[in-house]
Design goal:
six-stranded mixed beta sheet; single chain; globular; about 270 residues; 9 helices; transport; about 30% helix; binds adenosine-5'-triphosphate; alpha/beta; ion transport; ATP-binding; Rossmann fold; ABC transporter ATP-binding protein; 12 strands
Length: about 270
Amino acid sequence: MVDRVSVDNLTVAYGSHSAVNGVTLSVPKGKVTVLAGPNGCGKSTLLRAVRRLHAAQSGKVLLGDVDISRLKEKELAREIGLLAQSPSAPEDMRVEELVRLGRYPHQSMMQPWSPEDGDAVENAMFGTGVAQLRDRRLGSLSGGQLQRVWIAMVLAQETDVICLDEPVNHLDMAHQIDCLDLVSRLNRERGRTVVLVLHDLNLAARYADRLVFLKEGKVVRAGDPAELMEEKLIGEVFGIQCRVIEDPVHNRPMCIPMRNTSPRFAVEA
Ligand SMILES: Nc1ncnc2c1ncn2[C@@H]1O[C@H](COP(=O)(O)OP(=O)(O)OP(=O)(O)O)[C@@H](O)[C@H]1O
């Protein structure tokens, strides 16, 4: 299988703390890869490093066979789109204005706004169901509406590699499925390579071709969801007891959490 992105022995640190610690990982071309793991295990940092928003302390990220450190910012932005966790924009900005910002890597003094830019913005807004919100100010939207606008902005970028960090955060069930189905269609019908961070293991198992479990800045296991969705391994990575059964609709593994092996919250101090 060809790798679209490869992470080679990557370490990313905040001061003396290595959030990503010697990670080697392949993201196969034209597949959906899902990163999962407990809070603070380095998923967002890894994704941001893939988009070169964090410098590597050591190791490298390759796009095909090119080291991303050798690419110009707009070249990289035309290849890899990232919806980061908790992005921010001015509250008085309008929806369509934000989505249009997704087109910045395609523009220059020589190449101003084009009909292709307009089409990409419209497709992204209709695909994510935010077209009817186009004139609303961001500050007036609900959390889920705003999240869909951000997803539209990244999709308007029309990159071959689409990275979404917890894209279904704040979304109701219908919009979670709509969002992941849209990304899945972009993958199947347009051959886009997709990397998602998801906390919901059942959605991860349903949409991933390749699942990656991370813990404490390292990859614990990567592979077919059917191999990783295993009670003992989930217990080790996430610290819960669970049962894994087969989802009777999609025939994918489904995790039923039962008990936390070391509860983080106490009723009394
Ligand atoms: N700006 C920062 N400065 C210092 N430490 C940071 C910073 N951002 C993240 N960290 C630390 O780096 C580690 C990895 O954080 P990261 O956000 O990558 O984890 P995550 O797996 O995405 O977590 P979550 O599931 O909670 O979103 C954590 O210990 C976190 O506290």
